DNA sequence: GACGCGATGTAGCGCTTGCTACATACGTAA
DNA sequence: TTACGTATGTAGCAAGCGCTACATCGCGTC
């Protein structure tokens, strides 16, 4: 018999992968349990609630992403806004990051309807993104918070565009963003 | 007894309002029927399917939006990319259009998971947006399709930002987009 | 060996889901 | 008046939902 903590941790680990792959829309307890390789009974033994499962999984996922982003675009050297737009828009459309962006869109869609607990999670992750961008902008940039917010909007928009158009259109938009002037 | 066509049209009318207000997440037949003021039995008499209900409602909603957009930003005079960004980002965040953008995010989130029929609808509406933007760009603009795609990404991104941050951040980002250079 | 306690299985509750079968009203045509 | 087709109500199905009650298993302690 594994301990409760061990089982819980393993479940989170496995569910992180599963949620990233399948999204938020089909998250019943039984499906989650199957993905974690346990019974729904055990899932509710490890976690108080379906909501608690989701919160933990999304937080774990946020942590994993943070690491990946740090590695993908290091905090130094600092970048001009143009360079940052180019780097971020390329990264956000890479196969590694794309699944997360899809999930990110789903979280925001749920948050837009005030579905607990997504609203709070969306704010958390959004703030993390903003900080991540701002930390990579050169100190020469005027009004870094505004520029960071603009860049975040741009890369989120690119992710949306990728879904609602053919991939080429998103490609074109990304390149166009890299050019002067906006 | 109203005719089938009349009942159907009235249901679409009422459901359009309802879906715009409450989103895609809670769309059970019984809830839809209640919103339309009829029984679920009648809803499935008017429509073949739950899917058909949703498709019709979203298409009707797309039509309504098209009209509103035409009025909000007339096709003439033509605009520079900067002016178009400013106009579109202001419009997209107006109280009239905001509910639609929230719904738009939800449709894309569903489309990202290939949930029928959202993938197709998202493509349709996305193409409409692109055409709408492009038609308002000055002929002096080089590479209008790319610019239109960029602007669409920007305003979609603004809508996301509005959900995952406080309203002020989206405000700042919108203003920053209006400045040179990107 | 008896006991206690954490870990796990089985079964099922009450509810919602999309959808259907059947019966009934009602207006019109013969 | 009868017959028929369209319109509508009532009831219910099988499946899935989140969650819980209860029994059981197996290990450590006395």
Structure characterization notes:
The structure is a homodimer of 182-residue chains. In chain A, 73% of the residues lie in helices and 0% in strands. With 182 residues, the first copy, chain A, is mostly helical. In chain A, helix 1 (4-22) crosses helix 4 and helix 5 runs parallel beside helix 8 (144-164). The mean pLDDT of chain A is 95. Chains A and B meet through helix 5, helix 6, helix 7, helix 8 and helix 9 of A and helix 5, helix 6, helix 7, helix 8 and helix 9 of B. Chain A binds a DNA duplex (30 and 30 nucleotides) through helix 3.
Keywords:
homodimer; 182 residues; mainly alpha; DNA-binding
Summarize the helices and strands and which ones pair or pack.
Two copies of one chain form a homodimer.
Chain A: H1 4-22, H2 29-36, H3 40-46, H4 50-72, H5 81-92, H6 98-112, H7 118-134, H8 144-164, H9 167-177
Chain A binds a DNA duplex (30 and 30 nucleotides) through helix 3.
Mean pLDDT of chain A: 95
| Biggest β-sheet strands, sense, barrel of chain A | none
Largest interface summary: A-B, 51 and 51 residues
Content of β-strand of chain A: under 5%
What is the count of β-strands of chain A?
A: 0
Oligomer: homodimer
Percent helix among the residues of chain A? over 70%
Radius of gyration of chain A: 18 Å
Number of helices of chain A: 9
SSE order of chain A, one letter for each helix or strand: HHHHHHHHH
């Amino acid at each position: 018999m594994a301990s409760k903590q061990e089982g819980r941790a393993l479940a989170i680990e496995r569910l992180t992968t599963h949620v990233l792959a399948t999204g938020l829309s089909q998250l019943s307890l039984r499906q989650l349990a199957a993905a974690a390789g346990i019974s729904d009974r055990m899932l509710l033994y490890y976690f108080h609630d379906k909501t608690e499962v989701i919160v933990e999984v999304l937080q774990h996922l946020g942590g994993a992403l943070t690491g990946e982003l740090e590695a993908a675009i290091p905090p130094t050297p600092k970048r001009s806004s143009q360079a940052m737009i180019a780097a971020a828009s390329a990264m956000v459309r890479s196969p590694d990051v794309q699944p997360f962006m899809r999930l990110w869109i789903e979280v925001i869609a749920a948050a837009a309807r005030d579905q607990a607990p997504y609203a709070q999670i969306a704010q958390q992750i959004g703030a993390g993104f903003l900080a991540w961008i701002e930390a990579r902008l050169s100190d020469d940039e005027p009004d870094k918070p505004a520029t960071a917010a603009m860049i975040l909007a741009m890369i989120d928009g690119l992710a949306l565009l990728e879904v609602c158009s053919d991939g080429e259109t998103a490609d074109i938009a990304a390149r166009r963003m890299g050019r002067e002037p906006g």
